[in-house]
């Protein structure tokens, strides 16, 4: 049923759903950078109407010349995450039977520091920051032309401050969902729910909470999966109605160890 040869690079399948007689959905643990470009294409389609994405990459800064660097910036950032043991990506692909399995969704988690250290050893040079920033918020030069760096800094500052405020010493002791996207063509088929559930099962097993900042589009999905709202964040100065919802799901007590 696998549509592409390099599927064998993936660690293991975690589920299969039949969508119709001709098409199959696979949900896999991604452990290779080979899918970075297709994942970014999928993400671009999913976030096409997202207000924060528009603010980070505003139309007035976008030109034909910088369209490609923006995409390359995203692909490189994703490759770094896929190679970073603190990150776990789960991927959904769709096989329409024409020899190519297309990426139709993904979820990116940062695992609790303790879990990462147990599996990959302790980093003696650790600065205390579990996941090193991929791009310093001061280092505007490495951001692509077309990005509004002020919006990026402002948003990250609010998100990081809130995480410290709400989680305190447990800041790195959560399964943190940092990224979720499903291709619009495939939305409403429980793909996101399946991708998120993969991480929630691990959080339950580790007896730690799951934490995230939700776009307006995803709040109902997370609520159905047991997340509760902690706080609303207004990250866009010129858009008072848009907010991110900070959500937490406590571990399921009956999860097996
Ligand atoms: C938010 C997002 C990830 C949801 O993906 P999805 O795969 O459509 O999510 P699901 O299918 O699991 O659930 C979506 C809805 O479909 C419904 N649904 C799922 N399977 C269904 C089925 N078989 N039949 C009918 N409805 C179904 C769910 O009940 C849910 O409804 P609700 O939102 O009214 O509660 C997707 O819309 C997206 O990528 N949005 C843009 C990017 C974004 O905001 N990402 C979140 C970052 S925090």
UniProtKB/TrEMBL annotation:
Domain spans labelled N-acetyltransferase: 166-252
Chain intervals for the UniProt region annotation (Disordered): 118-141
The organism's place on the tree of life at top rank: Eukaryota
InterPro entries registered for this protein in UniProt: Acyl_CoA_acyltransferase (IPR016181), GNAT_dom (IPR000182), Trichothecene_AcTrans (IPR052523)
Molecular function in Gene Ontology: acyltransferase activity, transferring groups other than amino-acyl groups
Biased composition (Basic and acidic residues): 118-135
One family name in Pfam for this protein: Acetyltransf_1
Protein name: N-acetyltransferase domain-containing protein
